[in-house]
Amino acid sequence: MKIKRIINVLATGVLSVGILAACSAPPQSAPPVSSPAEGDGDNEVVEYEITPEEGAELLVWDNGDTHREWAEYVAEKFTEEYGVPVTVEEVGHTDAPGVLQTDGPAGLGADVFAGAHDHAGNMDAAGLIIENFFPEYYEENFMEAAVLGTSVDDTLYGYPYAIETYALYYNKDLVDEVPETFEELLKLSKDFTNVRTDHYGIMFEPGNYYFTHTFLGGYGGYVFGEDNTDPSVTGLNNEGAVRSGEFLREIREVSLPLNTEDITGDVIGTLFNENQVMFRISGPWDINAHTDAEVNFGVAPLPLLSNGENPTSFSGVKGYFVSAYTEYPEAAALYAQFATSEEMLEKRFEMTGELPPHLALLESDVILDDPILSAFLEQAQYAQPMPNIPEMQIVWGPMGDAFISIWNTDRDVQDILDSAVEQISESIDVLNN
């Protein structure tokens, strides 16, 4: 079968891509693919253009609403360019891997589907996806976090189209100038905080590791080794991780003297809407709620930590993946590349408001003219993609509990983190044995 030939070529590890200029390549110009020439030496490389297979037609799965509208727009343009019919069906990006596992072997699955980056490791292990045909193009033209997030074991699988992270919301009626450092922020917070009247300088969910990783990573902690691909190595209890726990206690003392169970997303959102919070840490999913509440707010990247480093917020990446069950791998890869071109991603931003990880679009007037979304995109440059290997699912619970304990008690931070790491390591051993 043709797909087996493609997979074998990819598995050689010598597939490479001609690097395109970020701003000049039209969406229909797929980068040429290089493969080893037959015959004399392993080092000889012959470039060939990827072209759709004869008789190819594609099924694409994407989310609903404006996401599907964008996918249908891309499908129409792709068909105009390549003559390949494309059908778009609504299958959510978090549901698609499970549906493909059932429908793929029966020949009913999508050729290209939208997926979340933190599912990539499981999708690869299950044999659901094939490698990105144009890895060097994405390494050259996309945010590092987007490429790392959609890669497994140093191999790029995804075609990233959106990146999401959290940043600093601030109430413009309460804040004259956005602080550049957390030290400055906490000085402002101290003067504003009043527990009796439910006024707080800064709020976020300290018991949610999704948010607290921003401090752990910024101070030099890390989840796994080798860019979060080696679960046998962890920095969840190293010196930087301990410093992040101590910093959280400083925030509690100065600005947020409540227990974690009293600091939920709903509580934070309500107080921010009522002008009782100066700053909150959250993502673009809260924009509409604060807009509807007529809060005069802005968004900025997270302030610098005491070590001069940017906080490393966790990021989520969405991308297209090519199904291992497709009968048309070249047409499918072309479609995924076409959909994630600069032109198509700018159109996606206009239609959905999702942030594109394409480097050329960081300076796009379309994005820069939106100061709120452009601030999230700026923070995304310092973000770390959530690890996508299966072992990450074991981390969330123990680390969440650890930060709850750090926040709510006076126990030694090192001891708390050591206990969490011990629990994580034991669970990983069970998973892998």
TrEMBL record:
GO MF annotations, alphabetized: carbohydrate transmembrane transporter activity; maltose binding
Localization per record: Cell membrane
Annotated membrane topology: Lipid-anchor
Any one Gene Ontology cellular component term annotated for this protein: ATP-binding cassette (ABC) transporter complex, substrate-binding subunit-containing
UniProt entry tagged with the keyword Membrane: yes
Pfam short name (any one): SBP_bac_8
Location (main, coarse): membrane
A biological process from GO: maltodextrin transmembrane transport
Keyword entries, A-Z: Cell membrane, Lipoprotein, Membrane, Signal, Sugar transport, Transport
InterPro entries found in the cross-reference section: Maltose/Cyclodextrin-bd, SBP
Region forming the signal peptide: 1-21
Family statement: Belongs to the bacterial solute-binding protein 1 family.
UniProt protein name: Maltodextrin-binding protein
